[in-house]
Design brief:
The protein is an alpha/beta fold. It contains seven helices and eight strands. Bound molecules: D-xylitol-5-phosphate (DX5) and zinc ion (ZN). The site of D-xylitol-5-phosphate has 22 residues, from strand 2 and strand 8.
């Protein structure tokens, strides 16, 4: 089956200690993370405010030292206005929310023209059918498994069925090269289930950056939860 067997963990810096952001990201990179996930919020599309291109620019050299990608998750209205800024700041890939893009095809073409990977994020209540026409143009789909806006929320269980249906949709359309990323409430309790359902990139914030354990220990626990879970491919699906 032509899907990437390897599961990637993407570290969402939203839950990191911002007073020492570079160090925290370095800890994650030293522990093997190769996707750094930058959450951008505008106080309109989501009720929270977070960071801008300068954060991506500051993290670019740190990521480069480890050959890591920087992914920017835009939770903002009119994302087209900022695509070039984020790619110039060093984003390898950008995802926009389908709910914010009336001209999604144009937005995706713009991301590609800027030389970055393209993703579309879906809120929990947004149906997969909104992806029908755009799917072949994408590098990944970001399935929100919580309502976007805050770290540390609880995983929405019905997301598993959505991930499973997206995996089937990709397989039926011979688009398994399109990655399925999941974002929100991912930790040792949920990592196995989303992997089994067909996710290949697991975005985690509060499960990686917290006061309970070191970043390395948290990542170890996350990986062991993924490894303990029997993979979808091994079940022959
Ligand atoms: C939520 C963000 C997530 C967030 C996930 O709107 O898109 O990337 O950091 O946080 P956790 O992993 O704590 O649910
Ligand atoms: Zn995110």
């Amino acid at each position: 089956m032509p899907r990437a067997a390897k599961i990637q963990i993407a570290a969402s810096i939203l839950s990191a200690d911002f007073s020492r952001l570079g160090e925290q990201v370095k800890e994650a990179l030293e522990a093997g993370v190769r996707w750094v996930h930058v959450d951008v919020m505008d106080g309109h599309f989501v009720p929270n405010l977070s960071m801008g291109p300068q954060v991506a620019r500051s993290l670019r050299p740190v990521a480069d030292r480890f050959g890591s990608r920087l992914h920017v998750h835009l939770m903002i209205e009119e994302p087209d206005r900022y695509l070039a800024d984020f790619v110039r700041a060093g984003a390898n890939s950008v995802s926009v929310h389908v709910e914010t893009c009336p001209h999604l095809h144009r937005t995706i073409q713009e991301i590609r023209a800027l030389g970055a990977g393209s993703g579309v994020a879906l809120n929990p209540a947004t149906p997969l059918s909104t992806l029908d026409e755009i799917l072949p143009e994408l590098d990944f789909v970001l399935v929100m498994t919580v309502e976007p806006g805050f770290g540390g929320q609880e995983f929405i269980p019905s997301s598993l069925n959505k991930i499973d249906r997206l995996r089937r949709m990709l397989t039926e359309r011979r688009l398994d090269r399109v990655l399925i990323a999941v974002d929100g409430g991912i930790g040792a309790q949920t990592a196995g289930a989303v992997t089994r359902a067909g996710a290949t990139v697991l975005v985690a914030g509060s499960a990686i950056f917290n006061d309970r354990a070191t970043v390395a220990e948290n990542l170890r626990q996350l990986r062991s939860a993924i490894e303990r879970s029997p993979g979808r491919t091994r079940k022959g699906k």
